[in-house]
């Protein structure tokens, strides 16, 4: 859908009409509320907190007799579950409530000795493999030096990514690891391997590489081998470590590419920024004009569901009823949509935010957060870059209850830091996230701090 044809005047905060036919059943309001309770049950306190922060909703409950309420949908909309989305393909993916997260055995405790989040810049390239820098550049980009340099120069800066991670996990120390990793020639089998030197331990790890089956990039690196390197350089005081890679990655022979992976129990994660460059949007069916929060534009959702509804033998008249409402800029979602609609596009900033979002997602796994099926959320699983950009960068009501406990800073601290880090950035995504976080902070207004159990 061309953005010029769309005024984004109505938004939708519930799963799309496709969700039902795909087999996705959303948790009830009671179950959603219970999911962010440490007991796994709705308490009177949470019912009252819900009432205080949101629209009233009647819901019978075994635990409480009073009315209970969630934050209103335009604060935390449901997942869109559009055709082809990961939740549409895997609609029964299990939930992970706060209670399940608290009881998760594989989750590493955050201790005084191990609480620092480390971020590692892309490795340097030894002169023995200097051709490798071309691997980070799409095959269609001309091979001359100015073109290469301008492509490589558009990569997000590590310091900007760290600033975002620091805000998102506010309360924990986030540091750049000065590891001086370096790629070098792997003499035994240079056609399939490249060496990654880890100076702190004098180890050289062999990293497999292969031709990109999608032909977008010349070569891809094996992410499991990179994670071995992460394990090698993991500092003693690390809660976890994140490697930033400008190269396209793959996990095994069965996949085309992979933008990130974490082994939370092992405290390690790696992400690739390669495919998030907005210059590649056309080749990946990415609709930046309807990236989050404009992914909640009712017309856009309708346009993506319409072809499927039309292909059904006897489409029911209800097949395309979109739950939609007027954009109200007093709500976090409405404020985000309005800010995004008014902002000037800035592809460099868009690129940065996409990478930041994936960085926090993979780090979220290191903190024991599983994929989120409750709401639109930074912890949603994703099947494509196109889906990725439709998902929000923020943590939903359930995930923020886990984060608040992990970092000790609670929801108020989290959204305040997010609002602050968006200031001074430009482009629609940052404007939207800043507006969302500021509206959420206003709504919390002193409430929502982490209450010790
Ligand atoms: Zn994930
Ligand atoms: Zn979530």
Automatic annotation (TrEMBL):
Residues 1-10 have a biased composition (Polar residues). It comes from the Eukaryota. The keyword Metal-binding applies. The keyword Electron transport does not apply. Coiled coil: none annotated. Keywords: Hydrolase, Metal-binding, Metalloprotease, Protease, Zinc. Its cofactor is Zn(2+). InterPro entries: MetalloPept_cat_dom_sf, Pept_M54_archaemetzincn. One of its GO terms (biological process) is proteolysis. CDD domains: Peptidase_M54 (cd11375). It holds the Pfam family Peptidase_M54. SUPFAM superfamilies: Metalloproteases ('zincins'), catalytic domain. Transmembrane segments: none annotated. GO terms for molecular function: metal ion binding; metallopeptidase activity. Residues 1-86 are annotated as: Disordered. This is Archaemetzincin-2. It comes from Coniophora puteana (strain RWD-64-598).
